[in-house]
Amino acid sequence: MSQFIHPSWANFEREHVWHPYASMKNPAPVYPVTSASGVMLEFEDGRQMIDGMASWWCAIHGYNVPELNEAVETQLKAMAHVMFGGLTHKPAADLAEALLKIAPNDMKHVFFSDSGSVSVEVGIKMAIQYWQAQGKTDKQKLLTIRHGYHGDTFGTMGVCDPVSGMHHLFTGMLTEHFFADAPSAETDAAWDDSQIDSFRSQLEAHHHDIAAVILEPIVQNAGGMRFYAPEFLRQVRRLCDAYDLLLIFDEIATGFGRTGKMFACEHAAIQPDIMCVGKALTGGYMTLAATLCSSKVCDGIHADGAGVLMHGPTFMANPLACAVALASIELLLKSPWQERAVNIEQQLEKELMSCRDRAGVADVRVKGAIGVIEMKDAVDVAAVQKQLIAQGVWLRPFGKLIYTMPPYIISNHELKKVTAAMCDVVSTL
């Protein structure tokens, strides 16, 4: 045994390793995982869990995927990493080509980064640099809608919902941006034009200061798993064009088929000027993200004669991550991913809607491979997880939400176990 390996790793971990959104002194339960395959996680004590979270929505193909394993192993033999400053490599070029083929066709350029939050930071920088190059240096603010979530870094925290965005501790330290009311209509059939009024008012009052609008298209994820009508996006696009503003779409959670379309903006048949992707980009194998932009944005940044985008992550375009991301995209395109999304959506609709009338349930909603039970009151996450684990299901509720975003390969039988566990837990709350 190495001199650096503690004889009881779990004890050491509890004492020294900090988990996300967690306390070191009063930690929530964590469950040691020793292996993962298909949609199953194996705990250290031998228990098998169906992962209904796809590891925070990224393991869309499940775990231990032969095609992705092979991509990593092949690339590892050639080159694990090389800096992207002044050097380049084929995995990055191949991945960029694959991304641009499936992205909205206005997207023409790709900037790689390490994580979703950083890809949004890059998108914000692109927007601000675009206007600086035009000599409009006052355009430094962003406009978004309430209930949104775009990441945990300082730039991204500023465009998360100031009340529900989990960042209240940093109030006063963040850049102050503009917020409009989020639409309440979930479908175009329920749409009313009054739902764009707050957004339009903000543009009318502040467009001289706004560099870009940033939105999670169709689904607001960590801000509350809210769904909204495509018509809102269409009207936002028209207003951005009317006021000559850039539009950023954060597709980090919704990209690569999660909502039933390759990218959620396709539900509205519109295109952004800048698009951020991450999470499922590598099929959950490695951390990687990308910020895509149109020729308009790229040319605009170059209008000052320099065009140097001021960002440079150390592990930008890591070859291993690029290779496995390319393999993940190819695997997705070869798979019946659209049929799978439809099947998952239909099964979630059928099985979760039985919970709608139960005491304590505020709402049940489904979009693509996303199923949400919203309670009237916040849930005890640790207690709910314990009940779910007893039924062989891994989920991570938050706030008032018990939800699933499973791997696309999940079987009907496995998904039924997830939905049954969710409904059983709800009946006890």
Quick overview of this protein structure:
This protein has helices at residues 9-16, 54-57, 66-78, 90-102, 116-133, 154-157, 197-206, 230-242, 295-301, 319-334, 337-352, 381-390, 412-428, and strands spanning 33-37, 40-43, 48-51, 107-113, 141-145, 178-180, 210-215, 219-220, 226-227, 246-250, 274-277, 289-294, 361-367, 370-375, 393-394, 401-404. By secondary structure, the chain is an alpha/beta fold.
Write up this protein.
The chain has 429 residues and is an alpha/beta fold. The chain has two domains: 14-65 and 336-428, Aspartate Aminotransferase, domain 1 (Alpha-Beta Complex); 68-334, Type I PLP-dependent aspartate aminotransferase-like (Major domain) (Aspartate Aminotransferase, domain 2, 3-Layer(aba) Sandwich). The chain is 35% helix and 17% strand. It has 13 helices and 16 strands. A seven-stranded mixed beta sheet has the order 4-12-11-10-7-5-6, sandwiched between helices. The chain has a four-stranded mixed beta sheet with strand order 1-2-3-15. Helix 5 crosses helix 9. The relative contact order is 0.15.
